[in-house]
Amino acid sequence: MLKASKQNKSKQVAKGWHGDFLCTVEGDEEFLRELNRKEVLEGFVRLMDMMPRATQKKYKDTPTGRIFESLGIPLDSSIAELNIDEVFNQASKLSANEIKDIRMYIWADFRDGALRDLMPVAPGEHEDAVFHLSGNYSTW
Questions:
Q1: Is residue 5 domain-resident?
Q2: Strand arrangement of the beta sheet that strand 114-121 belongs to
Q3: What is the pLDDT of residues 87-135, one digit of tens each?
Q4: pTM value?
């Protein structure tokens, strides 16, 4: 009962407020360690697969896109047939220096205290977001 009461109060406080956030996640040594856990790498690949192909292509010729391609993650075709074991093998060869230039972007849209939309986006998308948050992976 207390939990429902807090939720209602939060909704009342947020009523009428809306805005969106563009969140930038920067690669760091913890991200490199996490990529060496197969389940994390699989989740990362699934996150990429959530993006339309046109969005994925916008990563081409960026540090992030070059890392994707070095891992065998295509930017211009379906990743449904991706060999995750091979990607995992390639990820184990990455260095901290290579990872530090990775940038992933997540866009979140809120209205009246409720999350209406959340999706991975490409560099340059949603630059007009009301709020911009960025930090390294270990901070997130």
A1: no
A2: 114-121, 103-111, 18-26, 131-136
A3: 999 999 999 898 999 999 999 999 887 889 999 999 999 999 999 999 9
A4: 0.81
